[in-house]
Amino acid sequence: MKILDKYILSRFIFVLLFAILGFVFVVIFVDMVGNIGKFIDKEVPTPVIAKYYVMYIPFVVILVLPIAMMLASMFSIGHLAKTNELISIKSTGISLNRILLPVFIFSIFISFFALFFGERITPKANQKKVEIEDQYLDPFRKVGKISYSNLFLRDQLSRYIFIGRYDTRTKTAHKVTIQSYTNNRIIERMDAEKMVWQDSLWVLENGYTRSFTDSNEVAIPFESITDSTVQFQPGQLVEEKFEPENLSYSELKNFIAGVIENGGDPQKWQVDLNFKLSTPFASFILVLFAAPLASHKKRSGAIFGLVISVGIYLLYYGINQFIQTLGQVGILTPLLSSWTTNIIFFLLGLLTLTMVQK
User: Fold this and answer.
1) Segments forming the whole domain that contains residue 332
2) Can you count the helices (H) and strands (E) in the chain?
């Protein structure tokens, strides 16, 4: 069986790599066509442009991985069915479940890889991509909104700033929390009722500075502190790009804690936090659903494989977005909204697997 497993997996992985490379090329090419004018107008150096798109690749890979996995299962298993190889294998007494087992196991492995990759690699790459956008493409974009709520940004590599509300007219931030970390452990925290932009510096008013050690906490009240280490400007603050995909699970969790402490509603981001755990398993769920369909000879053509893959993916994505919205508005709990689509398609996959010819 090892030879058979290797044979099936080799065909699956070949199609998977081809699909991923194809999707990455198309997405980056389309983005490049749309942004090339901006790069030229801003006179962005070629090495910076190259770095920008290298940093874009991890996000694209995670984005297209589920549909690439589904295409790989449809085309690789479909080819075996079309050439009667599946019939020959099953004639030896091997069930379809056993034939598809290596593909399912590999899909689970890919799902855990996507979980790790999306936690460790993608957020850092997205952050560097955003830094290039801020520095070269549109660093001084004018913003028309007057008030912003639940802002989050990094002032330094190990420091996070949470703002409950920011008024662009008075350049005043309300309910401000600044946390400094070392090795994921908070070492200093500053809480202020408000932070005002005065004489090109931020002045924090009415709050506490807390220092933490392994054994105790020292809290010092203050009425007014001018903090020259807070180096962002008001214009940069209101255009700070907060996107859940730019943060790791732990960073988003810290942000949610800051929102709660500042009196904000964390529901939307709690949903995003749970989706960070559920989304990677779409690769396994969609393969479980699609692979049995491809095993039928009458449905093994390339056109059928492409059409059914796109159709299933759009259905999955549409249901997922709808249920995610239900979670964000509070109709469903964050945990339930993040896993409902996977549960539905998992059960449909098992049903499909039992209905196809063994």
Assistant:
1) 2-126+274-355
2) 11, 6
Task: Examine residue 269 and state whether it is found in any structural domain, yes or no.
Answer: no
The one-digit pLDDT tens for each residue of the chain (358 residues) are 688 899 999 999 999 999 999 999 999 999 999 888 888 888 889 999 999 999 999 999 999 999 999 999 989 998 888 888 888 888 888 888 889 999 999 999 999 999 999 888 998 898 888 888 877 876 444 445 677 777 877 766 567 888 888 888 888 999 888 888 777 678 888 899 999 988 888 899 999 998 887 778 888 999 998 877 776 777 666 555 567 777 788 878 877 877 776 666 788 889 999 999 999 999 999 999 889 888 875 555 567 667 888 888 899 999 999 999 999 888 999 999 999 999 999 999 999 888 876 5
Give the tokens for residue 303. Answer: 């056109």
- Give the number of domains in the chain: 2
d(CA 41, CA 19): 33
Specify whether 62 is located in the same domain as 168. no
Is 303 domain-assigned?
yes
* Measured distance CA(86)–CA(98) in Å, rounded: 11
* 106 and 36 belong to one structural domain: yes
Q: Are strands 185-198 and 201-212 parallel, antiparallel or unpaired?
A: antiparallel
The CB density around residue 130, as the number of other CB atoms within 10 Å, is 16
Q: Is residue 317 assigned to a domain? A: yes
Number of C-alpha atoms within 13 angstroms, CB side, residue 222?
Answer: 19
pTM: 0.75
DSSP output for 59-104: HHHHHHHHHHHHHHHHHHHHHHHHTTHHHHHHTTT--HHHHHHHHH
How far, in Å, are 2, 63, 122 from residue 277 at the CA level?
Answer: 32, 14, 14
DSSP string, 137-182: I-TT-----SEEEEEEEEEETTEEEEEEEEETTTTEEEEEEEEEEE
